[in-house]
Amino acid sequence: MAILLSTFDGERYLAEQLRSYNAQTHSNWTLYWRDDGSADQSPAIVAEFAQRVGKGRCSHAPEDGQLRSTGSFLTLLHTALRDDADYFAFSDQDDVWLPDKLAHAVAALGEVAADRPALYFCDRTLVDESLRFIGQPSRLRRPPGFPAALTQNVIPGCCMILNARRPN
Asked: What is the pTM of this model?
């Protein structure tokens, strides 16, 4: 499982997000991260986390200029694909994951035929900066198809986990 994290001036939120990775019941993950030109301590916070969780658990992707969100995540995805990751979880720097997020995704994606591309997504809960409940986003009116989910932003990236299968 590859967790893809792009940071940009996120020091205020990163510690809690990084703690939520360590709290996952599915612990077989590698963090792929890159910073997109932060002026704060974001890179230092993630680098310290990488050192703390141990060698091989984190991979720092190239920082070849500011790519903005989409470019940064595509760089991370490309890096993780080269390392033969089987699943890809997109992570915003201001999220905090529930402990079973990865386990639920791996279980669901494991039910899909090995040669079939698949996308798992989960609900999200809106919270304030102290993690107090604010509300739930509105629900989708109908189930999204795979292409729409990738191209029409019906599912926020922080809620998606993809498998590594490519269509024939």
From this structure: 0.85
